[in-house]
């Protein structure tokens, strides 16, 4: 687990634009989560953007990854065919998931692996706990896994007094800072080096004023390595689970999955049931796409295959459903199960880049999060489908061709029909529907362009104040007459083709509407 | 050829010059354009927010207003996209399907249908950048997409290159969203404004004095951001430039 590798790939992908002499800008924290109350992405995004060094660094790092991804794409002539092929393999597997799960289980058991089934997050955590109890194990090292984040595994283990040590550097930084990962592949990408220096100073006793990469890497290694060497259990996720031979493949840039799997005598892998692919031969398609889409590197540094326990050791697979079967049965949203967690959609998303992953207040953030999270908690994540401009770039970069932006759009339909948006919004939409379907009512509403300026944005949602009057944006200037009025006055330009004044003189503009 | 002009509601109210320029340009090209005076809106505000049931009557009115034309020309990519893709709340009769298939965006109409080779009346002696909206790039495919492995092309730039004196600059992130996004600009103002400011800065850093676009809603937002930043950039609809506006 080399910090250098990690940083070359992600955290330090772009130079940090912070002059050393600047006072330290505190790292903005993520969304405020209150139980099942709808997460307010905009509120957290506003705080992230209000920290300009962090926002700028975040945007440029991830845009850099996006550009590296583009370069890789241009290097592969059959790129679009590869995406299409990967998408079809996933469709096929998901359509026959039951059969492939049986095949995978039989093969894994034949390899000497213990296979467990978890209906939900709680069952997953209990199964892992009971495996550990059976072995009298007290400590666990863990390679990064979004599934265990989804299951709240770290919090559960803290509750039963078992120490969990993250072996992925970014994830370890997040663990020490008591934050979830902000990004699937680069968990601490929202932090500046100076933020990491502060976290390490507080938790590992390092020099708070030394944010030099090699210093931080070495300090972390020295402090954490003994814990890794003494751990009772090693845990990994699985990027792919291969039905025909019962093996799993784990991709890391730090080789930390190998540490987790090979150092302790007990290896537990948490596997989402959608990770199955039919054959070893299919793996090549996904390995070619994964890292190119994620970080713009041709391949991850380590692609580790685990098939069975080494002599004297034990291997357990925990197959986790946690809402996946239900999603698979959903006509509109099932294809989100194709996701291989590459993060390309996050890196390209202009909203994610500006707002940071923690602003979504969920395990999965960015475009893929907007369509996965509501399947897990409709109310809590009811606002997330609106945290998108529906620009469609996410769909274009998705290596398995999930129609992400279309599903975001579909989620809005669900939220509206299930009355998730506020009552005032619903009333305003109903009113807009009445006005916009009736030419006379419409003309009355926008009589005079200045009034239109007030009315039009309110068709979208009820907002008591002028929506343009946010810091950083001026109210548009209203012209003297609408096109319709001009058309009437000039008989469609046949009488007088003079253009109406564009409002430069300010006539008709109300600056303090509301 | 019976051609109807659809003027988006926001353009009707806030950017009448776009509708006027479109009308005049089409007449210069020999098209006799109807402007159905009872038109209101394409239903996009409700559809974009997920309120399809509330969009039904507006969509029905849209179909009633525009049925029977060979082409419905609109100077707005997002409206055309909405009609083509999302006019689904209303019953899918033959008339509905006909309207959905016959709507064309102005650049598409000029480039693909009329295949205009020259705009002899047009001269624009300025340095410009083109603002391609997400609807125009990723949905109407008016320009190539940087995320896909495809040959670069641009229909609007192909048209603008026929304008005398124009100098076209390229932005660093040509197909990055400007952050307007309809309801997004209202529900997520902080991110929307930041994206708008970044986009304006990208346009401005090229040295261009004018931003030309086929989407007035994007440029309304960008103009608001530019004014707050104190950037003296001017924003024009492509219809104005092709119709001979000299900036």
From TrEMBL, chain A:
Mind telling me which InterPro entries this protein's record contains?
A: 4Fe4S_Fe-S-bd (IPR017896), 4Fe4S_Fe_S_CS (IPR017900), FTHF_cligase-like_sf (IPR024185), Helical_ferredxn (IPR009051), LUD_dom (IPR003741), LutB/LldF (IPR004452), LutB_C (IPR024569), NagB/RpiA_transferase-like (IPR037171)
Tell me which Pfam families the record gives.
Answer: Fer4_8, LUD_dom, LutB_C
Q: Which UniProt keywords apply?
A: 4Fe-4S, Electron transport, Iron, Iron-sulfur, Metal-binding, Repeat, Transport
Q: Does the keyword Metal-binding apply?
A: yes
Biological process (GO) annotations? lactate metabolic process
Basic and acidic residues composition bias: which ranges? Answer: 481-497
User: What's the domain of life for this entry?
Assistant: Bacteria
One GO molecular-function entry? 4 iron, 4 sulfur cluster binding
- Sequence segments annotated as region (Disordered): 1-38, 466-514
Q: Where is the 4Fe-4S ferredoxin-type domain?
A: 330-357
PANTHER family, A to Z: LACTATE UTILIZATION PROTEIN B (PTHR47153:SF2)
Q: What is this protein called?
A: L-lactate dehydrogenase complex protein LldF
Where does this protein come from, organism-wise?
Answer: Naumannella halotolerans
From TrEMBL, chain B:
Ranges for domain Cysteine-rich: 3-82, 128-222
Cellular component terms per the entry's GO annotation: cytosol
Q: Name one GO molecular function term.
A: oxidoreductase activity
Q: Tell me the protein's name.
A: L-lactate dehydrogenase complex protein LldE
Source organism (scientific name):
Naumannella halotolerans
């Amino acid at each position: 687990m080399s910090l250098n590798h990690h940083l070359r790939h992600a955290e330090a992908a772009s130079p940090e634009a912070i002059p050393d002499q600047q006072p330290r800008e505190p790292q903005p924290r993520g969304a405020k989560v209150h139980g099942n109350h709808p997460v307010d992405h905009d509120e957290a995004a506003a705080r992230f953007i209000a920290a300009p060094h962090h926002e700028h660094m975040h945007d440029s790092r991830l845009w850099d990854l996006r550009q590296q991804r583009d370069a890789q794409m241009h290097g592969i002539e059959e790129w679009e065919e590869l995406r299409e092929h990967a998408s079809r393999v996933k469709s096929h597997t998901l359509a026959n998931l039951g059969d492939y799960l049986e095949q995978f289980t039989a093969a894994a058991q034949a390899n000497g692996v213990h296979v467990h089934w978890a209906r939900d997050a709680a069952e997953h955590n209990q199964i892992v706990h009971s495996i550990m109890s059976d072995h009298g194990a007290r400590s666990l090292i863990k390679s990064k896994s979004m599934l265990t984040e989804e299951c709240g595994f770290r919090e559960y283990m803290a509750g039963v007094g078992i120490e969990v040590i993250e072996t992925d550097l970014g994830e370890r930084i997040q663990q020490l800072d008591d934050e979830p990962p902000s990004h699937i592949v680069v968990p601490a990408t929202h932090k500046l080096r100076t933020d990491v220096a502060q976290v390490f100073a507080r938790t590992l006793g390092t020099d708070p004023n030394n944010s030099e990469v090699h210093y931080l890497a070495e300090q972390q290694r020295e402090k954490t390595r003994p814990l890794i060497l003494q751990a009772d259990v090693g845990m990994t996720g699985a990027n792919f689970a291969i039905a025909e031979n019962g093996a799993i493949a784990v991709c890391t840039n730090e080789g930390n999955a190998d540490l987790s799997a090979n150092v302790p005598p007990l290896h537990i892998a948490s596997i989402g049931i959608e990770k199955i692919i039919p054959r070893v031969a299919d793996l090549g398609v996904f390995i070619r796409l994964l890292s190119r889409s994620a970080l713009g590197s041709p391949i991850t540094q380590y692609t580790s295959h685990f098939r069975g326990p080494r002599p004297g050791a034990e291997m357990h697979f925990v197959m986790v459903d946690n809402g996946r079967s239900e999603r698979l049965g959903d006509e509109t949203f099932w294809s989100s199960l194709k996701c291989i967690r590459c993060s390309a959609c996050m890196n390209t998303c202009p909203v994610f880049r500006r707002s940071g992953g923690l602003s979504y207040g969920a395990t999965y953030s960015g475009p893929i999060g907007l369509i996965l999270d509501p399947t897990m908690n409709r109310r809590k994540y009811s606002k997330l489908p609106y945290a998108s401009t529906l620009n469609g770039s996410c769909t274009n970069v998705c290596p398995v061709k999930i129609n992400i932006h279309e599903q975001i759009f579909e989620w809005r339909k669900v939220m509206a029909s299930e009355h998730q948006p506020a009552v005032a919004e619903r009333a305003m939409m109903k009113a807009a529907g009445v006005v916009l379907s009736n030419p006379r009512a419409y003309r009355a509403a926008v009589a005079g362009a200045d009034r239109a300026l007030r009315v039009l944005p309110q068709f979208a949602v009820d907002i008591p104040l002028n929506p343009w009057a946010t810091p950083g944006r001026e109210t548009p200037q209203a012209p003297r007459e609408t096109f319709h009025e001009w058309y009437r006055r000039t008989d469609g330009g046949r009488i007088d083709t003079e253009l109406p004044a564009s409002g430069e003189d300010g006539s008709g503009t109300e600056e303090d509407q509301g | 050829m019976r051609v109807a002009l659809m003027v988006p509601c926001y353009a009707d109210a806030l950017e009448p010059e776009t509708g006027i320029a479109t009308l005049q340009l089409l007449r210069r090209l020999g098209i006799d354009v109807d402007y159905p005076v009872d038109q209101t809106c394409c239903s996009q505000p409700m559809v974009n927010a997920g309120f399809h049931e509330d969009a039904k009557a507006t969509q029905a009115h849209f179909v009633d207003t525009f049925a029977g034309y060979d082409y419905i020309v609109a100077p707005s990519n997002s409206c055309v996209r909405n009609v083509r893709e999302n006019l689904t709340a209303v019953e899918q009769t033959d008339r509905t399907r006909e309207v959905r298939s016959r709507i064309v965006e102005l650049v598409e109409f000029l480039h693909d249908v009329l295949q205009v080779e020259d705009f002899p009346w047009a001269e624009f002696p300025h340095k410009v950048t083109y603002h391609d909206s997400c609807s125009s790039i990723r949905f109407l495919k008016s320009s190539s997409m940087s995320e896909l492995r495809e040959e670069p092309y641009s229909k609007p730039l192909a048209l603008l290159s026929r304008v005398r004196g124009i100098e076209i600059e390229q932005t660093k992130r040509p197909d990055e969203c400007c952050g307007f996004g309809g309801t997004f600009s209202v529900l997520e103002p902080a991110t929307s404004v930041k994206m708008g400011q970044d986009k304006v800065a990208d346009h401005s850093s090229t040295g261009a004095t004018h931003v030309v676009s086929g989407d007035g809603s994007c440029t309304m937002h960008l103009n608001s951001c530019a004014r707050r930043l104190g950037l003296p950039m001017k924003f024009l609809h492509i219809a104005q430039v092709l119709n001979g506006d000299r900036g």
